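haha ok so turns out i had the wrong file open the whole time. this is the CORRECT one, sorry everyone. sequence first:
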Amino acid sequence: MTCNHIVFIVMDSCRYDSFVAARTPNIDRLGQAERRYSYASWTAPSHHAFAMGMMPHASPKEVFASEVYKEEFALWTERTGHAGIQFKEFLPDLSLPKVLRNIGYRTVAKVSLPVLNKNTLISRDFDDYKLMKNHNDFAGMIDEMEFPDEPHYYFLNLGETHYPYMLSGDSLPHISGVHGALKSMDDAPARAEKQTFDAAQMRMLQQQQVKCVEYIDGQIGRLMAQTPPNTHFIVTADHGELFGEDGYFGHGPIMHEKCFEVPFVEGRLA
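then structure:
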């Protein structure tokens, strides 16, 4: 049985309305974008859900969660073209890469965010797992991809839509605790002066995220030009982003709908 190639693209931090505001003629070839909801509000736990084979959910009403999970796992039969993939195939590891390897896939991950580095559990069942040197290097990922007869599962985490949204230098507003936050995580806590971006800066940052989506769409068009017909695409985000709504910026330990709303599109080229 010939399995489909699968390209799973995660636009890190891309909230749903930023995606909808962007011009995405290439992604539109796959089908209609849905508004769905992430299982978590920041990168690492959201990607653990992806590694389990779980997509962002539609928050259905009047249904048992177990039925939603069962249907989600069964969809991998359609995505791969390999009959008979059910929830039991994922047990006991709950690992999508392992399931795919068991049916003949080569599993390859290319990630942008250091929190997803190859020492994390997320990398465990991939044949090839790479943290890119530059977090804005979707173009470089594409240059490294190939589609031989052996079915490939490509999992791509893109940093272009993550703060600082491809901005640098004078074009980037500065706020303590965002720039270089990881470098000072082990420092003793100190009371800092409260800082935030103003409303105009927030609008500018979201517009820049929209531009990043359009850049990604252009690169996806370049990728589509080199993929064979039996390639199934998934394009989504791991979580959303806050641009000043109710006093929030960014994502992480935030309980706000805009932090969980994400776009979801899947299909094959029309």
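The CA atoms of residues 24 and 237 lie 15 Å apart.
again sry for the mixup
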